[in-house]
Amino acid sequence: MPPPKKPKKSGGTGSHTHALSVVQEFMKESYYAGRRAKEKEDEARKAGEKVAQGMEADINEYMEDTEGWKATIQELKELCPKLEELLAKIADAEETTDELCELVDSLEADLLRRTDGRILRVGAELHELSGRIQALQLENQQLERNLESSSSATEKQALEKTITSLRADVEGKERTAQLYKPALEKMKKMIDSEKERVGRRNETITLWRNKCENLRAKADEDKAMIEKEKSALETQALELNQRIREQDEALKDSQTRLEDCETSKGQLEESLTEMKTSIATMNSDYSEGKPTMQAQLERLKVEHAAAVDANRKA
């Protein structure tokens, strides 16, 4: 309601003027007290709403961050078993690679040992046969020289017989050598073929060894990378846990502040209620006293007019 208008001043006694001032002052105080109470109520409500909105925004932001961190931690938890499984596979691959390398080395040694043995046996047989033929030829030449230098007919006859026998033996051995020669050539070809096969196997073994080394190097590289990634993920998880703990503390602080705000809000509401009650009482008192005041005011006006009239006549 608008503030009450001041009554027009007129001549009269001081008591009448004082009574009008008292009535006017009472009405002004009632009006301004009601307005101040309304302003305080609005300020308290706005402050409470602002604080509540800030608390709500902080809590929503924290919840969003928490959900994101929970999702990240869940991904880390799901990734760790996969990393462990991959490390186990790498370990198995390393073990298999070691076994394969050992098998390749054993195969290579066995092939070399068998090939070297066959080559040595064939070489020995060829050498033995060549030596026997050469020995027979030397013995035949010696007998021929003895025959030429001998003067006895009986001795010559015996030498010729021996020479004939040796020639027959040499020819027989040469025929035997000729018979064995295709087999020996075949054996040589087999040896050459075996050498080629051993060479090819050695190339295959070398290739497998290189593959094994590459696998081992790749496994070491993957293992180092996984260990590095795992360490980084563990560090990230620790940082996230630390941030979550910090946010928990911040949330607890926000909740405490919110509870304080709720308490302050309750206290303000109680004060506002008391002020409203006081204003209502003042309005009630004003409403109840208004007729009496108006009657008094009218009486004062009449008395004032009478006093003015009496003063004029005097």
UniProtKB/TrEMBL annotation:
It comes from Lasiodiplodia theobromae. Residues 59-176 form a coiled coil. Keywords: Coiled coil. The lineage of its organism: Eukaryota, Fungi, Dikarya, Ascomycota, Pezizomycotina. Residues 250-269 are annotated as: Disordered. Residues 250-263 have a biased composition (Basic and acidic residues). This is Myosin heavy chain.
